[in-house]
């Protein structure tokens, strides 16, 4: 019985937040997305889904700030995903036609890139920088160490941490 009462209370809080703030949030997001109403509407819904999934609700009077923080993160994720997608499509366009992947392969690779980007974003900055410099720019550990101003041993630790995080993310997605 207590669980039902708690769920009803939480549903009412989300409903109140939605009713009181969704028009404002739509306008706020539209302004950050260059007037794109469709993306803004999608992110309004995603904001409330993220709110519900987190189980954390704003204190009274702080609904807009709380929602703006969630929505701001979603805007960053959207821009990051679009940059990744654009870079991937540019790389595909440069490939000869016979070796171009199918639409399904493109979607799978793009999904993988987005997941890896999320994983690297959660790592300490130097670990993700070391990983990107080594794996995507082809720098040696010595060159990465010089670029980051750290020792090669530190680069090895960063690479181990980043590689483990990427592998764990892939394992989490395995069927």
From TrEMBL:
Keywords in alphabetical order: Sigma factor, Transcription, Transcription regulation
Domain RNA polymerase sigma-70 region positions: 17-83
NCBIfam families: sigma70-ECF (TIGR02937)
Pfam family, one: Sigma70_r4_2
RNA polymerase sigma factor 70 region 4 type domain residues: 115-166
Protein name: Sigma-70 family RNA polymerase sigma factor
Coiled-coil zones: none
DNA damage listed as a keyword: no
Family stated for the protein in its record: Belongs to the sigma-70 factor family. ECF subfamily.
InterPro entries linked to this entry: RNA_pol_sigma-70-like (IPR039425), RNA_pol_sigma-70_dom (IPR014284), RNA_pol_sigma70_r2 (IPR007627), RNA_pol_sigma70_r4_t2 (IPR013249), RNA_pol_sigma_r2 (IPR013325), RNA_pol_sigma_r3/r4-like (IPR013324), WH-like_DNA-bd_sf (IPR036388)
């Amino acid at each position: 019985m207590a669980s039902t009462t708690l769920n009803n209370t939480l549903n009412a809080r989300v409903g109140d937040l939605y009713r009181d703030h969704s028009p404002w949030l739509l306008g706020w997001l539209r302004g950050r997305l260059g007037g794109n109403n469709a993306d803004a509407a999608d992110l309004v819904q995603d904001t409330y889904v993220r709110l519900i999934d987190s189980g954390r609700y704003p204190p009274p009077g702080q609904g807009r700030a709380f929602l703006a923080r969630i929505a701001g993160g979603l805007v960053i994720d959207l821009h990051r995903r679009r940059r990744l997608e654009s870079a991937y499509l540019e790389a595909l366009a440069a490939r000869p036609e016979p070796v171009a992947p199918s639409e399904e392969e493109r979607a799978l690779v793009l999904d993988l890139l987005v997941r890896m980007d999320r994983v690297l974003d959660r790592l300490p900055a130097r670990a993700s920088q070391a990983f990107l410099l080594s794996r995507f720019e082809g720098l040696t550990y010595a060159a990465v160490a010089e670029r980051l101003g750290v020792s090669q041993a530190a680069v090895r630790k960063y690479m181990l941490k980043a590689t483990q995080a990427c592998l764990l993310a892939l394992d989490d997605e395995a069927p």
